[in-house]
Amino acid sequence: xxxxxxxxxxxxxxxxxxxxxxxxxxxxxxxxxxxxxxxxxxxxxxxxxxxxxxxxxxxxxxxxxxxxxxxxxxxxxxxxxxxxxxxxxxxxxxxxxxxxxxxxxxxxxxxxxxxxxxxxxxxxxxxxxxxxxxxxxxxxxxxxxxxxxxxxxxxxxxxxxxxxxxxxxxxxxxxxxxxxxxxxxxxxxxxxxxxxxxxxxxxxxxxxxxxxxxxxxxxxxxxxxxxxxxxxxxxxxxxxxxxxxxxxxxxxxxxxxxxxxxxxxxxxxxxxxxxxxxxxxxxxxxxxxxxxxxxxxxxxxxxxxxxxxxxxxxxxxxxxxxxxxxxxxxxxxxxxxxxxxxxxxxxxxxxxxxxxxxx
Length: 359
Fold this sequence. Notes:
The protein has helices spanning 2-33, 42-48, 166-172, 299-307, 343-353, and strands at 68-72, 78-82, 90-92, 96-99, 102-105, 109-114, 120-128, 131-140, 147-155, 180-184, 188-190, 194-195, 201-205, 211-215, 227-230, 238-242, 246-252, 266-271, 274-279, 322-333. It is of the alpha+beta class.
């Protein structure tokens, strides 16, 4: 009897899910065909390229009057600059992979189309393990906006199996190429002017609609002057990084079906007194493990690194896959050092991240 009820419940759940997927698909089609969509937030409307007629204006508008612009940089990177000139706000790196202890990235980047005051399209490729990584992107900076939208597609090749640990392969009953070590489909290097004394503050939104923060100040109470990989676990939709005077917010769209509870690994570097932050949406960093106050001889750390499979890089799992990401990257001024992103920007980020329904 219990088994029969369980099977019946599963069948009804499957029917409900199928009906919900059909409704969502129909709503998305209706949204794409509709010309009368109104956005609750005018900043998001301008960001998406829609009309803002009739929308309410927020008091803490986050789009600067002068906006930003992008410019090609060396190695296929993009520099983000104030529209009226001034110091760089940051860099969007061209895709790169660390394979067999060597950084592989795009040497030659082709501009497919660049429209005046409109989207810019580019593509590039580079070699990994005897095969080619292909990528394409479309970048759009709305008029007078302190934000940009970047859509990237990265095709990663399947490479020959290479096992450094045959016993592990036997336990998992599969093979892989352990020469894949790091993946950065769209690394961001914001110029936040943080320092050892005034480190960056991470702000994130979780699935209970709660906003929390923490400081990247590990160097102040430990020997970890730099973190090769740090993460923002349990994050819904967006993450932000605030410095002494300005910050950067990164949100991702779920329209492409790509989502993660910890979508943006981070890396910190202390160069003298200057703190540098790197953000790696939907990529993976790998490197040295953190050092803890309880360490003495270092033997425990040595054994842990050698024996703990969970400390290995996740990069081999990317081989043979295609990543397609759609990011909103916005800059804002901090009312005080380390302040949270403005409320209107938080709302715009959630609207961008959450698939819309037309009822």
